[in-house]
């Protein structure tokens, strides 16, 4: 598999008065096209900071972030906006759906972001929600709302899906269904999926596990025989 993402000696420092927090401390790693990657670490370890830097929501203090041979750390605001629109699909713990739009309308919002024809019904069908296309978020379960958010994220065919605790607000059964869907996208559609979580069980299903502690890479493990999400003991 070809490398699609590379962090090289990335530092991220936050300053508040005399207080200095080094959220990323000389972080380096690579991710290949189509990998299912799990980033593990305790609260405050730097997981979300890493995801925000990769997604272009925050900027590095020093170091390099290279995605598809482009140096993201050198982008100006306009370039970052375009990068997020074309390359990144975000999936968060809370679904961020627009309540007065139907499931289909929430997905087809992506037409306003990317200059691409998007078949919202087809995308909803891919996450098993075609029959709910005309329902509003309040009429859907938590798992169904999360699947709409995934459909919205993948509608623009992004380079990568960045997932920040995507099952944190779901019951375990629904969470497994969502994670299985993301793993299928990695395995069958060659989508690069990066999941930030504190749930170590998911590591068994990952192609690559990156563990972070105190803003530093603690370990990077390649899993030669990842399990199916549905085969894990939750």
Detailed description of the structure:
- With about 230 residues, the protein is α/β, with parallel strands linked by helices.
- The protein has one domain (about 5-230): P-loop containing nucleotide triphosphate hydrolases (Rossmann fold).
- Helix content is about 25%, strand content about 30%.
- It has six helices and ten strands.
- The protein has helices spanning about 45-55, 75-85, 105-110, 120-125, 140-155, 170-190; strands at about 5-15, 20-30, 35-40, 60-65, 70, 90, 160-165, 190-195, 210-215, 215-220.
- The strands form two sheets. Strands 6-7-8-3-9-10 form a six-stranded mixed sheet, with helices on both faces.
- Strand 4 and strand 5 (about 70) form a beta hairpin.
- The protein is globular and about 50 Å long.
- About 40% of the residues are buried.
**Low-confidence regions:** none
Please tally the β strands and state the result.
10
Mean pLDDT score: 91
Strands ordered across the widest β-sheet: 6-7-8-3-9-10
What structural class do the secondary elements suggest? alpha/beta
Question: Can you summarize this structure?
Answer:
By secondary structure, the chain is α/β, with parallel strands linked by helices. It has a single domain (3-231), classed as Rossmann fold, CATH 3.40.50.300. It has six helices and ten strands; from the N terminus they run E-E-E-H-E-E-H-E-H-H-H-E-H-E-E-E.
């Amino acid at each position: 598999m070809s490398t699609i993402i590379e962090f090289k000696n990335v530092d991220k420092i936050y300053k508040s008065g005399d207080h200095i927090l080094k959220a990323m401390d000389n972080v380096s790693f690579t991710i290949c096209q189509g990998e299912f990657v799990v980033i593990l670490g305790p609260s405050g370890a730097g997981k979300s900071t890493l995801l925000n830097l990769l997604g272009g929501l925050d900027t590095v203090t020093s170091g390099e972030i290279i995605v598809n041979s482009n140096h993201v750390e050198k982008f100006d605001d306009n370039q970052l906006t375009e990068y997020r629109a074309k390359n990144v699909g975000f999936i968060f713990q809370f679904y961020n759906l627009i309540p007065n739009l139907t499931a289909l309308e929430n997905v087809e919002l992506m037409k306003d972001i990317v200059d691409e024809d998007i078949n919202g019904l087809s995308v909803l069908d891919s996450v098993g929600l075609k029959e709910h296309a005309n329902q509003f978020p309040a009429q859907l379960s938590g798992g169904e709302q999360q699947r709409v958010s995934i459909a919205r994220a993948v509608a623009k065919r992004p380079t990568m899906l960045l997932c920040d605790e995507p099952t944190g607000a779901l019951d375990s059964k629904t969470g497994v269904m969502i994670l299985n869907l993301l793993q299928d996208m990695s395995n069958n559609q060659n989508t690069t999926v990066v999941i930030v979580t504190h749930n170590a069980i998911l590591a068994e299903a990952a192609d690559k596990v990156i563990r972070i502690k105190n803003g530093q890479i603690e370990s990077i493990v390649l899993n030669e025989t990842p399990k199916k999400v549905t085969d894990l003991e939750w």
